[in-house]
Specification:
Blueprint: H1 9-19, H2 25-35, E1 110-118, E2 130-134, E3 156-160, E4 166-172, E5 183-189, E6 203-208, H3 211-218, H4 224-230, E7 251-255, E8 259-267
Parallel strand pairs: 1-8
Antiparallel strand pairs: 1-4, 2-3, 2-5, 5-6, 7-8
């Protein structure tokens, strides 16, 4: 529904060593869980230094390709209803406010989202790519689609990667709504000019947010409804992340009081 990457013990271990980067990281993890294989010392996860392009010491310079995920029903990219990709002002770093003549600001805990886009084949940073990002608000609603905010387009924006392959968005921590683990959607495009048409995208995926951080944020005012919905889902049962979230789980720093930072390296 959402992904395409969905012998004996000795044979499994031998095959993993032989195939190297050809095996998908989540497939290896799933196999490990099934057969009880210990991967200590095995090279499965490339790109130990995703910003320099160095490999992990085995001579195979490769990064694990970000899993392809559904854009969901609220993309705002023209593939399902409205599109912001050609809207004036969509290229921006602070996505908390509406733009292109619309007004409104999404409230919530400050979250800075930093993605580093790298080559899956070399781990080298990819400059001048474009990233379109979007997610729900503090109440679990998506601008342009959800009742009460169809006249808003906040929590959506596009940016071009810098020389280090990085883009940084200033946003708010998304809610947990019924049936889904807390997440952020994004698409990667080959260039800023190409990011005006959804048919040009080269990757579509989602960022998973760590439970410990979700618990802290959802204990604050405005997120009360997320406490109950988070208790009903897990990464293991989520429709998108159930087959493995290692490549999509953000690293969080900062504090709820001063602002959180979510970082993730994305290989395309």
């Amino acid at each position: 529904m959402h992904r395409n990457d969905h012998d004996d013990f000795g044979g499994l271990q031998r095959d993993l060593l032989a195939t190297g980067s050809a095996i998908n990281r989540r497939q290896a993890l799933r196999a490990a869980a099934t057969f009880g294989v210990s991967f200590a010392g095995l090279q499965l996860f490339g790109c130990s230094d995703s910003t320099t392009g160095t490999d992990d010491g085995d001579g195979d310079e490769s990064c694990s390709l970000i899993p392809n995920e559904t854009a969901g029903p609220f993309p705002g990219d023209g593939s399902n209803g409205p599109s912001v990709l050609n809207a004036t002002g969509v290229v921006r770093s602070d996505i908390r406010s509406s733009f292109a003549g619309l007004t409104g600001i999404a409230g919530g805990t400050l979250l800075t989202i930093e993605l580093t886009i790298v080559s899956a084949s070399t781990c080298a940073p990819l400059a001048n790519r474009a990233v379109y990002i979007w997610h729900c608000d503090q109440q679990g609603r998506y601008s342009l689609y959800s009742s009460g905010i169809t006249n808003q387009n906040y929590l959506r924006g596009v940016q071009e990667t810098d020389a280090n392959g990085r883009v940084t968005f200033i946003s708010i921590f998304p809610a947990c709504y019924q049936g889904r683990w807390p997440h952020i959607h994004f698409e990667v495009y080959p260039s800023l000019s190409a990011a005006t048409n959804v048919s040009n995208k080269i990757a579509t995926s989602q960022i998973a947010l760590p439970k410990a951080t979700c618990d802290l944020v959802y204990a604050t005012s405005g997120y009360q409804q997320s406490v109950a919905t988070l208790a009903q889902v897990s990464l293991a049962t989520d429709m998108v992340f159930s087959d493995g979230s290692a490549l999509e789980l953000a690293t969080i720093s900062g504090t709820v009081a001063t602002g959180l930072n979510a970082t993730l390296t994305v290989a395309v």
